[in-house]
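Batch job 17 of 40 flagged for manual review because the log was empty.
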Amino acid sequence: MNSPVLSALLPVVLLIAAGYLAGRRRWVGAHAVKDLSNLVFLLLAPALLFRAMSTVHVETLSLRPVAAYFIGAGVIFVGMLAFLGLTRSAAVLAITATFSNTVIIGVALVDLAYGPAGLVVLLTLVSLHSLVLITAATLMIELIVAREHAAASGAARRPIVWTVARAVRNSVLHPVPLPIIVGLLFAQTGLALPTAVDKPLMLLGQAFSPVALVLVGITLALTPVGTHLRGALALAVVKNVVHPLLVAGFGWLLGVRGLPLTVMVVAAAMPIGANAFLFSQRYQVVEEQVTAAVVVSTVLALVTLSAAMALAANF
């Protein structure tokens, strides 16, 4: 029972269960879910992301292992859009199938299993994970939203350059990519955050993981997840099984071996991160399916993460 996988995943399951209890008991009603989502998305997440990026120096990052991870995620993302079509729902499902829980579960798990050396490799990915995946997904969704608005209004189609420029603006002026970019720019100055600023940011960031997971549980209690079980299971299998296999293959082709490849494969095998749920809330699409997928993926990870760690030990 002292397995590092169980030790890392059990708190996540319990937090979701606590939220589920709160939702079932109606301690938090359906009317409050949107407000809680805004709290997490507009306040807690930016504090966490800015502070995490505020000490990252680009020149210290080893990018080849990370490249294997992102190539695998990119193949899944593009493949799902090609299969499902260019819609907001498809884009949210695509980010759901590629976004790992690298912070809430990943940091604790890798630290327990592989020690400080493994943690350094993971933090290289963590420093870029949201910046690359969320910014790319936001850009794609904003392009789709711009196209939908143009079609709904019946307005003449604007030049593609204008649409791309507007989508880029909306993807940057966004509560998730913006603090990542600002934090990364701040880190390059060599300055340190004053304690009076750093401490509140730290406290807000620490609140992100438990509140986000409790929110997943509340939404789970208030939505008919059973009707989305098949779709949730399909997303969970893509995330927990297909993603790590792709990362292992691309990592091998790129010449990545040993601990760096092991950590990347394990990171790819992590269950779906809470940011996917927040994305569905933000754009108000496939919320029930994504909520179910986060839960199914987390439970399934008890098996698939153990298998991935056993397989990665041979690298």
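Reviewer: the log was empty due to a logging misconfiguration, but the result itself is present. Residues 4-312 form a domain with the Na+/H+ antiporter like fold fold (CATH 1.20.1530.20). Unflagging and moving on to job 18.
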